[in-house]
């Protein structure tokens, strides 16, 4: 059962005492892997994925039966600074599209056999423009965290979190810059497709926003309050809830990874139950994945968000797990093991 979140310090303490991978299950999965009818290591990364998944699911012979995809949507005051190629009303319009089954994620979640949930977070009340003040107050941060925390189905066995939010690559870039330093330009990309002048303006916005808040940011949760959008905060809440429930997570693109980075910069090892589904085309995603120590499963140049790359990667993880749990051992199949 998931505890009810009381306040931010409660969340911090839950993160720091989160369950670890089950070492017994990990050993059992490793042992089974060594007996399967293939040359040692021939399934390469698929073998490591299945063992990792079994460790978190606490079994040496895991199955994936009930994946869940949750998409959070939020609106961003920083759009007033002209940081996106699209207008903010597209966020609510796309929520309608998700609800009617017309978006890419609807197709990809269905293909992966995943349940899809959509949560629109106060779309009529954008966060404050973070170049003017903190994006959220503490109550707003808590509410969005709680929305994510409460969205995870305890009966699911794999989680993908996705997002929709015009302007959110600016917020994600600011979070990465605040958490990992460097220059604003290192973390700022074209998002939905701003031109060169747009990119320059967006980089200025990221630089100014981070300069305004840096002294107030001690950890990832401070960063989320100052610079985050509600959908980014909610993704962090859902990823943390999945950890409490021992549900492995596949991370999506740049914005999802910025949310995840806020957890990693709040408690060591907070992303041990996560793998990177893909590397998106957003400029800084590769650098962010490197900071997280995550190797993406796919690199298709996607830059859609919505959890789409991670939903596609469910199929890779399913492939790993069906081989691991369904293959015969050398002894069972009567194959000589060399
Ligand atoms: O997932 C990514 O890496 C990604 C890269 C570029 C754009 N997006 C999507 O595009 C939207 C944000 O782009 P922008 O230009 O409005 O900041 C948001 O809805 C994201 O889902 C997503
Ligand atoms: C149309 C559209 C669809 C999206 N899905 C995720 N982000 C998006 C941004 C736009 C602009």
From TrEMBL:
Role, per record: Catalyzes the synthesis of alpha-ribazole-5'-phosphate from nicotinate mononucleotide (NAMN) and 5,6-dimethylbenzimidazole (DMB).
Documented EC number(s): 2.4.2.21
Key words of the record: Cobalamin biosynthesis, Glycosyltransferase, Transferase
Any one GO BP annotation for this protein: cobalamin biosynthetic process
Gene3D superfamilies per the UniProt record, alphabetical: 1.10.1610.10, 3.40.50.10210
Catalysed reactions, semicolon-separated: 5,6-dimethylbenzimidazole + nicotinate beta-D-ribonucleotide = alpha-ribazole 5'-phosphate + nicotinate + H(+)
Classification via InterPro entries: Nict_dMeBzImd_PRibTrfase, Nict_dMeBzImd_PRibTrfase_bact, Nict_dMeBzImd_PRibTrfase_N, Nict_dMeBzImd_PRibTrfase_sf
Encoding gene (name): cobT
Protein family according to the UniProt entry: Belongs to the CobT family.
Active site per the UniProt annotation: 306 (proton acceptor)
TM region(s), chain numbering: none
Pfam families associated with the record: DBI_PRT
Entry protein name: Nicotinate-nucleotide--dimethylbenzimidazole phosphoribosyltransferase
Top EC category: transferase
Pathway involvement of the protein, from the record: Nucleoside biosynthesis; alpha-ribazole biosynthesis; alpha-ribazole from 5,6-dimethylbenzimidazole: step 1/2
Domain of life: Bacteria
UniProt-recorded Gene Ontology molecular function terms: nicotinate-nucleotide-dimethylbenzimidazole phosphoribosyltransferase activity
